[in-house]
Amino acid sequence: MRSLALLVLAAAVGEAAALGAAPARAPAAASLRPAREDAEEAVAVAVAVALPRSADPAAVEAAGDEAHGDASSHHQHGGGYKIVQWEWSYVQTPYIIAIWILVASVAKILFHFSQRVTTVVPESCLLILLGLVLGGVVLIASKKQLYQLDPGLFFLFLLPTIVGDAGYFMPSRLFFDNLGAILMYAVVGTLWNAFCTGFCLYGMKLAGVIGELFLLFGALISAVDPVAVLAVFEEVHVNETLFIIVFGESLLNDAVTVVLYKVYISFVEVGPGNVQTADYFKGVASFLIVSIGGTMVGLIFAVILAFITRFTKRVRIIEPLFVFLLVYLAYLTAELFSLSAILSMTFCGIGTKKYVEANISQKSRTTVKYTMKTLASIAETIIFIFLGISAVDKSKWAWDTGLISCTLIFIFVFRALGVVGQTWVLNWFRLVPLEKIDQVVMSYGGLRGAVAFALVVLLDGKQVKAKDYFVATTIVVVFFTVMFQGLTIKPLVKWLKVPRSTNRKPTLNEEIHERAFDHILAAVEDIAGLNGYHHWRDKWEQFDKNYLSKLLMRKSVYHKGELWEVYQKINIRDAISVIDQGGNVLTSARLSLPSMASRTSFSDVTNVTSYLRENGSGVCLDLQVIDPVSGGKLEEETETHHLLTGNLYKPRRRYHAHYSRHFMTMGDKERQDREVFQRNMRSRLESFKSTRYKGKTRHKKERSQKKARLALVPIDPVVAPLESEEEKSEDEPEKDDDVGITFFDVYLACCCLTSIAVPGTLEVCQSPAVIPPSPTCAEKHLPWKGGGGTLPVCVSMETTKIIPIDLQQAWNQSISSLESLASPPAPAEPQHPRVRTLVQLGLHLFLHLHYLCVSTTRMISSKATYGIGHYTPVMSHEKHRFSLNTHFVVKLRDTGRYHTLKQHCLRICWLNRKAEKTHLP
Amino acid sequence: MIMFFSSPSDVKNNGHRRFFPYCHIILIPRGVSGHESGGITTFFARRFHHVTDHSCAIIMGSGDSTLSKIPNVEELMEETGFSPAHVVRLYERFQALDKSKKGQLSRKDFESIKELATNPIRDRIIGAFFAQGQEMVDFHTFVRILAHFRPVDKNRPKKANMQEPVNSRTSKLRFAFQLYDQDNDGKISRNELLQVLRTMLEMQVTDEQLESIADRTIQEADLDGDNAISFDEFRKSLEKVNIDHKMSIRFLR
Q: Quick one: signal sequence residues (chain B) (predicted)?
């Protein structure tokens, strides 16, 4: 509470500034009383506005006291029940905090209004400047700085949010690949900086202040600050290795800083004369305990967290909470035992992420991600604003130009020297040596920040007489590094041409091949008899797979396999991007998938195969498998049923209100998936439409020719009425609209595709060549054949998805059953093969049509369905439930279906072969 | 450049790590320098790199026994870029693996490496050591194969007449590619990819899942639409990956 109370309502401050300070207080309080009396008369608004405007906090308190007096007096003259009460003291703390966060967030928005400013000036600089302005306002208002960055607030609330975010989202592979370098810089580098800076300052100022204090100062000023590094480097986008080394160092040097700081403080306390040699060893031991202990605490919490999330299946809604709580607890526990809290939290995050991410649901993952990022961003903003505010405080300042300039020079020089020296040593052992430009960026990126400031504020002014000097120097150093270096590092990186990072998700190819590389390298190390890095990594992965993952992951997840996860993620990403482009999918026939960056050269839209393939990656989404909900299949079945019976001509989307606070409706996911699928199907149809547009006119011609022929041929009386009916139904769509024809085209194309994809039907489709040529038959076949010819031979992968190979069996069965229906009444045996072909083709068509109709329910408007004439009743009267892939086959065997199939097939027979009137039911 | 080791104590010889065993005077050729080529030598080699312009020549100390046993060792080092220390170390390893002491390794010798037992693509990697139709591997081939994984050295001068070094990006990729391409037709077909995936993922995923992964992978990389990944396509799909980094190991001295 103490620390929170330091925050102030900025608006109040601003107003107070206008009113002036102490002399204004009395009138302010005076003006308050009439206002309160107004309130008695229920003029509530006046109070609410007048009070915060008329007083700074001190005045508010004074007024509050008076108000209490007032209240008691009012009691005396029977004021009784007050309708509106002023409860400032009650809401003060959270109110102020909320207002501060609001100010910080609004400031961020304002900064980003101007693109030009934020690309040049880092946000942290702007925030510090804003803090300076605010601090100035406060100072002018109350003549004394009331607020500054409070170490308690900083270490317990602000820092953990940032470190937690950093640890949890640390790219662990990269981190461990460079762990050696990171540890080297964090431990050796920080020690080097601390001692060199301390001793040199001591040397520079032999007179005056005692040595330990300079060592102490050296210790706290030498540590690179994670907050500052993160803030600046995130905008610079240097390559990952460089970033992870600087950032990892800034996190891991915490242990060194903590120990050095504590050791020196205790030295100061006992007095420099009383330090014995044993104490130095204690210092070393303390370092080991603080660092290793911190790491262990973090890892223990990581295991606990991962283990807990294994069992949250039924309480998905609080999954994110566990993550935050346990990571934060890791921090607090380390603080509790005075271990390195940052180390603890970092390792908790790194260690737990893999298992937690696997265990929790996709939504929880998103929640964790965004909440962490939001908190960290806000904490960062507040830290920098408060750094600015804290700087405007004359009472704590003691300016010493010599000290400040020396410190600045020393930390810069020793940082550079340290980096160069350590890199030289490291490059002996590193596979990829750190180049000179890397070293420059690393030395230049040694930013100091809020941690140093908070530590220096924590110093006890009685024991450390030079505290004010140190505070001033620290502030200047922090400002210099964050503002000057932060401002110039971007141009520097550009000028040096440091390899930048590409913010790019790995493709599936890269994932697979890199996995293979890992295995290869491990094997080669084993063969060459080297127990190198890859050897141990391989060992660890074995251990992880055999024991840790088994313990910490859900069974269902454990058996899924990482690569499969990656595959799903990539697919979902593609699907989302396809949907995001929503309109584009329909209007322009161009589809770009981000994960297929390597194939951007494929602009040839007219090429059906390429387009199909590109387009089809979404169809490849095996959505049913992504989230195997128990009973998912059943649910899906009913869903499909709904789609078929009710949803066909209705708006598809239905909103269900969530009444339960504890559960989310699981159907959401399913519905979403279906939408993805349907969109894909639609775009596919569109693609067919656009690519086969040219062929359409020819089809028309052929069909009209055929009609003419039908009309000319002398017709058997029994068939005649049927034919005219047939003609009518075929006529209308042509006059009417393109849609029907297009659809016809579509399923023709599909038909051809399938005939290639499914080997079993191949011969059937090509059989017209074998069949004794009958003019009508050939005519009928031509468009289909033509369709097959114009299509590129290469079949997309998805076709096999559309019609599962195992459908063949069903085909054969249903075909044979159809044959048994068709052949006995047909005495004309020589015509039989043709009949069979046609029957099969009809069946073939029907399957496709059916499939397409089901999967693209929305696309098929009533018109389009009408366009394919007599197939429509088959669809709309269908009362069976079936799912897209699996149940199809089963349902085909149903007797109910045979009826319609038979009808359909026989109709095709009528069209082609006038002679087979006996087949009419 | 000539280096003198004043006393034998400079020479570490604990069986595992050795700086130039038994060497007293070494002429460091320009080609061998690189940070992996060994302790102090590297240091000097780096310092005085510009001074040395000798042809590759190494003068062995009188006590050297290992290097002199290997025939054509200079050529081997020239070709692979390994330092003498590396070669000696690899030779010791080779002999340790060579149970039959014939100077050649058979498949069995490789398979008896117990660390390798858990590696899912073990067979393929072992297979990569054997040229087509060959049953045995001699030391030179052994070193040549391992040289694929030597990190790329930037300051090694390029000789005009030299063919592409064995540890270049392309040959590293070629090595990986050939692990997939078992029938050597220059293409990774769907089936070949499936096999690798199956071994790498073991029994964790169903066949259907594997197939969709394989399909997707091929779709992603396949540029010419032949439903297979050629080497060029393979290289293109990995062009954003730092192969020099990911396909190199640090050879100990």
A: none
Tell me if chain A has a CB within 8 Å of the CB of B16.
Answer: no
A220 Cβ neighbours under 8 A, 6+ residues apart: A257, A260, A261, A452, A455, A456, A474
- When pLDDT is averaged across residues A182-201 and rounded to a whole number, the result is 89
CA within 13 Å, CB half, A346: 28
Contact indicator for A792, A607 with CB cutoff of 8 Å: yes
CA of B97: which chain A residue's CA is closest? A527
- Please report, in angstroms and rounded to a whole number, the separation of the first and last CA atoms in chain B: 20
Q: Where is mean pLDDT largest: A508-512, A593-597, A834-838?
A: A508-512
**Both structure tokens of A188:** 């050796």
Choose from A426, A432, A519, A570 for mutation: most chain B CBs within 10 A: A519
pLDDT tens digits, A489-525: 888 888 988 887 777 777 888 888 888 888 888 888 8
What are the backbone dihedrals phi and psi of residue A16, each rounded to the nearest 5 degrees, phi first?
Answer: -60, -35
For residues A838 and A836, what is the distance between their CA atoms, to the nearest angstrom?
5
In whole angstroms, what is the distance from residue A53 CA to residue A49 CA? 6
Report B:166-225 residues touching A (Cβ under 8 A).
175-176, 179-180, 196-197, 200-201, 204-205, 208-209, 212-213, 215-223, 225
Q: Amino acid identity of A527? A: I
Structure tokens at A17: 């500034």
Residue A423: what pLDDT? Answer: 92
Confidence class for position A746, pLDDT limits 50, 70, 90: very low
Residue in B110, B234, B246 closest to A514 by CB: B246
| Dist. CA B75–CA B72, nearest whole Å | 6
Q: Does A507 lie at the interface with B, CB-CB under 8 angstroms?
A: yes
**In angstroms, what is the C-alpha Rg of chain A?**
38
Per-residue confidence (pLDDT) for residue A911, from 0 to 100: 55
For residue B240 the two structure tokens come to: 């954003």
Cβ atoms A168, A327 nearer than 8 A? yes
CA dihedral A771, A775, A776, A782 (to 10 degrees): 70
The pTM of the full predicted model, rounded to 2 decimals, is 0.63
pLDDT, tens digit (0-9, with 9 covering 90-100), for A888-916:
333 333 333 433 444 544 555 555 554 44
Residues of A in contact with B213 (CB under 8 A): 508, 512, 563-564, 567
Distance between CA B12 and CA A588 in Å, rounded? 71
Give the model's pLDDT for residue A684.
Answer: 65
- CB spacing of A523 vs B122 below 8 angstroms: yes
Give residue-wise pLDDT tens across range B43-95: 444 443 333 333 333 444 333 567 777 777 787 887 777 888 888 888 888 88
Range with lowest mean pLDDT among A56-65, A508-517, A667-676: A56-65
Structure tokens at B168: 């270049």
Measured CA to CA, the distance from residue A451 to residue A339 in angstroms comes to 16
ipTM of the complex as predicted: 0.77
Q: Does B112 touch chain A (CB under 8 A)?
A: no
* Three-state DSSP class for residue B152: coil
| Cβ-contact A835, A916 below 8 angstroms | yes
Q: What is the pLDDT of residues B221-243, one digit of tens each?
A: 888 888 888 888 888 888 888 88
How many angstroms separate the CA atoms of A86 and A72, rounded? 15
Task: Pull the structure tokens for residue A838.
Answer: 């046609």
Q: Do A510 and B240 touch (CB under 8 A)?
A: yes
Contacts 24+ apart (CB under 8 A), A629-636: A629/A666, A629/A669, A629/A670, A632/A670, A633/A883, A635/A666, A635/A667, A635/A670, A636/A670, A636/A883
Quick one: closest CA in A to B238, which residue?
A510
- State both tokens at A347: 């390792």
Q: pLDDT of A375-412, one tens digit each?
A: 999 999 989 988 888 888 777 777 878 888 888 988 89
